[in-house]
Amino acid sequence: MTTPADRSDQSPAYDVLLEGDYFCDLIFTGLPDMPRLGAEVVGTGFEMLPGGAFYPALAMHRLGLRTAWPANFGSDLFSQFVRDACRHEGIDDSLFRLHERPLRLITVSLSFPHERAFVTFGDPPIETPLAPLVRQYRPRCVLLSGLYLGQKLFDVAAAAREVGALIYMDCQAHNVTLATPGIAEALRAVNIFAPNAAEALALTGEVEVEAALAKLAELTPVVVIKCGGEGVIARCGNEIIREPAIPVNVIDTTGAGDCFNAGFLYSYLRGDSLEVCLRCGNICGGLSTTAHGGLAIPTAAQVERWLAQWPQEVSS
């Protein structure tokens, strides 16, 4: 099997153009109870970690995918913290856009053993038109971190068609359905749609993942539904494939879906079967959960070792 680095010099400068904002995650652990008005709770653990689109950027970098990430950063310490993390990891920062004002994108996570609560703050966002970047850099794939809608998506789709790029779209939306204006049109405009199970059920109004998959597959050529510890199910045409999750000791699921996306694209862009693509996604997403803050996001070599041992590793 070839890896992304093996392609000829005639290939595009980037494999993936990644859309998505950075976030800085402030994680409190060891809390005795949820905070309530008029009371203070004291945790026993705290971490500040880069988050948001940093996760797929890091995952694709470790897998050897040449990734363009046109992220916006401000003059604040949170922006600087995530930029320093990118520099430390060797993530390509040539498309980073620096602004002389705060651009604080922060999520506070109150983490308990089996559940988490979040508080998020963001300064007014800075819009980065994606379609001109697609035309300029001619990536093989555009990875949308969330549900794109309307003219913004149609512009990106038109640019992608011009340069021969596919569009892979995550979801990260729970308050819309297929009846919401623009949703069905958006799903028709992309090549691969990859919601998680809760998002797929909410979108379609179905109660079974299989039924949701069938309904979404009427709109998008390839649909991938991520089911966490139950693995993944996907459909391409009449082909329906299930792949189990890998057996791991889960520490932190933050960014697991993003890492699945990276693993899937690592395999898809080199022409693997849908079955192998799903396995690579599960391997990358699963291994990422075994430590906090992306520390366990695997390299291409680690993914290949797991693939070589399939299905023994999964059944063990």
What is shown here, in short?
Helix content is about 35%, strand content about 20%. The chain has 11 helices and 14 strands. It is globular, with a radius of gyration of 19 Å.
Protein model, in words:
The structure is a single chain. The chain has 316 residues and is α/β, with parallel strands linked by helices. The protein has one domain (10-21, 52-102, 127-304): UDP-N-acetylmuramoyl-L-alanine:D-glutamate ligase (3-Layer(aba) Sandwich), CATH 3.40.1190. 34% of the residues lie in helices and 21% in strands. It is built from 11 helices and 14 strands. Strands 4-1-9-10-11-12-13-14 form an 8-stranded mixed β-sheet, sandwiched between helices. It has a 4-stranded mixed β-sheet with strand order 3-2-7-8. A two-stranded parallel ribbon has the order 5-6. The longest helix has 15 residues, at 274-288.
DSSP summary, beta strand count: 14
Strands of the widest sheet, in order across it, are 4-1-9-10-11-12-13-14
- Biggest beta sheet summary: 8 strands, mixed
Tally of distinct domains = 1
CATH fold call: UDP-N-acetylmuramoyl-L-alanine:D-glutamate ligase
